[in-house]
Here is the input.
Amino acid sequence: MPATTVHRTERLDPAVRKLAGILVLGALAPLLDSTIVSIALHTLGHDLGASTTSLQWVSTAYLLALATVVPISGWAVERYDSRHVWLGALTLFLTGSILCALAWNIGSLIAFRVLQGIGGGLLLPVLQTLVMRAAGGRSLGRLMGAITLPAMVVPILGPVLGGLIVGHLSWRWIFYVNLPVCLLALALAWRGVPKDTPSPGHHLDLTGLLLLSPGLATLVYGLSETGTARATAIPVGLVLTALFTRHALRARAPLVDLRLFKNRTFALSSLLTFLNGLALFGGMFLLPLYYQQVRGEGVIATGLLLAPQGLGSLLARATGPLTDRLGPRPVVVSGMLLCALGTLPFLFPHPGAVLLALALVVRGLGVSAANMAVMVGAYQGLDRAHIPHASTSIRIVQQLGGGVGTVVLATILAHGHGTPAFPHAFAWATAFTVVACAVGLCLPVRVASAQQRS
Here is the structure.
């Protein structure tokens, strides 16, 4: 049966807009943190006397903690008051940031990054659950424009701030910078995030937790490593994840309800989320290296040269209402085509600086517009009870897509021997977006929300 066409033209509810603003402020802290820390790793190694092997665990430990805790976010929101879960996650991240800033050696810093990762891993899926429930299926495109743009802009502009901090202040300020953001977010959330009714009888799927959390953590670890560690970790992670899948399809109340993937629109949107993760995070990995290794730019100059991509992401805000009117399919397909078009100049030798800046605007517009429209498709047609499971699934899929994209492009660069490998890597990045465009054509034209169908 053809998808139902529903035209939604109402403005976003001011109460929902206010809630989204409060929650997005809290999510800014982990988004900023991840980009700033990556810029400061060399300085951290020098000041703490850490080896390269130890230093990589500053990032890896955070990612592993994040991957481990994401699966329980849906259960936590159901079992406890979601307001308390949000405040608790923010407090954990704030505490971890303070302790990281006070770290006395590389071992203590890695341990405190784990605490940060636990808080950060809960924040984004809980944010999506809270705002989607509040919206009730209305004006999802406008809502996604409010909550996803920071996730696009901050990783692009973050390196600029990171370069300035590392260049002019102690490395400890890369963690202290989280304090004012977290404190303000906590104060606003205490007053502005409404309470809901917890379900004390909603029990934790312990078997699922013991399979999925280690499985995801092992996969993330394998994707961040090389050689024997990767060859061992990835198969183990895949086996654990497969065992969880078997368990989840049989359990009455699984940790993550995989039955959602029987919904064609949600399944296609999840695949697109994975592919968009390849394009977004793969580009975040590749573009700074291109400017530094091929064009010989410094860290701060590279951050400034990448800023046009952030401008493109800001322009993508206008596509939220367009998604509400036309549905996700045309916006996803157009966004992926723009992303591919914005990547093409990097395939050629010696493109001009102005051309590259314009290309980054187009690329930022495309990938951000596609990401917002994909999220709209993922949540359309879902009832309130399924939203926590959808938020958890989407976050897991996006994280894995980013990890795979980074690994593929890093492998291409490693086997291409320097500068000549970059056009090849950008060709693969363009291919990711073309595949995503083809998948986007399979999306329904329009899907009525659960509320609209009732």
Summary: The chain has three domains: 14-195, 205-254, 260-454. The mean pLDDT is 81. The two ends are 18 Å apart (CA to CA).
